[in-house]
Every structure is written in C-alpha cells, then in structure tokens.
Amino acid sequence: MNHFVDITNRRVLYRMFLMLDPSAQPLWGKMTPQQMVEHLIDQVQYTNGTKIPTWDGPDENTALRKQNGIYTDAEIPLNVVLGNVPEVLVYPDLETAINQLMKELDTFDRYFNTNDIKVIHGGFGPLDYYEWIIWHGKHFTHHLKQFGVIM
Description:
Largest sheet: 2 strands, antiparallel
Order of helices and strands: HHHHEEH
Shape: globular
Oligomer: single chain
Radius of gyration: 15 Å
C-alpha cells in the first residue's frame, strides 16, 4: 500500500495541501479545493472524538468491505458520491481550512493515544488507529489526485 499518502508524515502532507490552487478545477467531481479540504476535516472529526459516528451494525458484506477497503491496494473509485457537498464554507479561505485539517489530525493522534478504542466507519464497522491511518491515507490520496496534486 505504498502508493497512498502517509498521513503520519504531516510535514509532507501539509506541503501537498499547500500546493492546492484555490481556483483549481477538479479532474472529476464537483468540489472546489476548499470544499474538499473541509470535507476531509469533517471526516477526520468523526475519528478524533469531535463528532460521534453512527452505524446500523454489521451486515453480511461488512467484513468483505473492510477487507477490500483497508487491506488491499484498491483505490477509492472516481466519482463516488456519499452525501451532498455543502454550499456554505466553514473557513474563510483554503489556507485556514488546511491549517484546521492539520489540527484535526493532531487531535486524531491524541484521541487514539489516550483511549484504547476503535471508532466506527459507516461501511467497515469499528476500526483501530492503524486501520484509520490506512483509510485516511486512501481517502486523502483520492482527493489529492482529484485536484492533480499527486498522480
């Protein structure tokens, strides 16, 4: 799984996000760069104790989805739409949103380091810290590719 972004290397990750042009058009999808970063903030907040995820419980495909989503080199498909893109931005500009994303990731680390827990993923069920590192890496890779920051 070496071709995914390493979200634990925050210096490199931060530089990648700073490469985003606020006016860049996505290679696919409808988000702006700032909407994408705010989407990632929202998703990380579900894994750092800020927001509480919900889950209807396992179904017959949960284990297979988790296996394929976490433990393979499979990338997130293009144009997957899970929910609406918010029209109203939370942060005043892209740089502020990027800085907030980095803070949320620091909170994510602290949350798992101070709690012996697993946190729910809506499709995969409970994930531990290392599984979330993998999933966030895949998710960040997907969106950085969306804006041509990485290929």
